[in-house]
Amino acid sequence: MHEFTLATALVDQLLRIAAEHRATGVTSVEVRCGVLQQVEPESLRFAFEALVRETVAHGAELRIVPEPVAAHCRACGREFAPGIDDYACPSCGRADAEVTAGRDVVLQSVGLVTAGETAA
Ligand SMILES: [Zn+2]
C-alpha cells in the first residue's frame, strides 16, 4: 500500500525531529502532498494514525495540503502548470519540461510540545 509506505517515511522523519527537540508531544503535522503521487488522503491519515499510536506524536492533527503540478520549460524558461500527460509549454509549444512541483510528499511543518529549555 503506497500510502502506508509514505506514512512510514513521514512518521520516521517526524519522530526524529521530535527527538532532536526533546519534544514531549506533537500538536500538528502539515504534509505537502504532490498530486502526482495520487495519494488517498484518508488512507494516508489512517496509516499515520496507526503508526503514531504508541509514540509522542499520538493525537497530532495531520493536515494534508495538496500541491499542484508545476513545470519549468527547458527551452524558454517559462514556469507553467501542465495538464495530465500534457507537458507542452504554453509559450514555445515544446514538450521539454522539467517537473518542479507536485511530485513529492514532504513534511512541511511540525508543531511540537517541549518541556521548555533547561537552563545550562
Ligand atoms: Zn517554453
| Gross morphology | elongated
User: Which runs of at least 5 residues are low in confidence (pLDDT < 50)?
Assistant: none
* CATH classification class of one domain: Alpha Beta
Q: What about the largest sheet?
A: 3 strands, mixed
Q: Please give the order of strands in the largest beta sheet.
A: 2-1-6
Annotated CATH topology of one domain:
hypothetical protein PF0899 fold
How many strands appear in the DSSP assignment? 6
Relative helix content: 25-40%
Number of helices: 2
Provide the gyration radius in Å: 18 Å
Short summary:
This protein is of the alpha+beta class and 120 residues long. It has helices at 2-20, 41-52; strands at 23-34, 61-67, 70-73, 79-80, 97-101, 105-114.
How would you describe the overall organization of this protein?
The chain is an alpha+beta fold. It has a domain at 2-68 and 102-114: hypothetical protein PF0899 fold (2-Layer Sandwich). It is 26% helix and 33% strand. The chain has a three-stranded mixed β-sheet with strand order 2-1-6, covered by helices on one side. Strands 4-3-5 form a three-stranded antiparallel β-sheet, with no helix packed on it. Helix 1 (2-20) packs across helix 2 (41-52). It starts with a helix and ends in a 6-residue tail after the last strand. 20% of the residues are buried. The site of zinc ion (ZN) has 8 residues, from loops. The site of zinc ion has 8 residues, from loops.
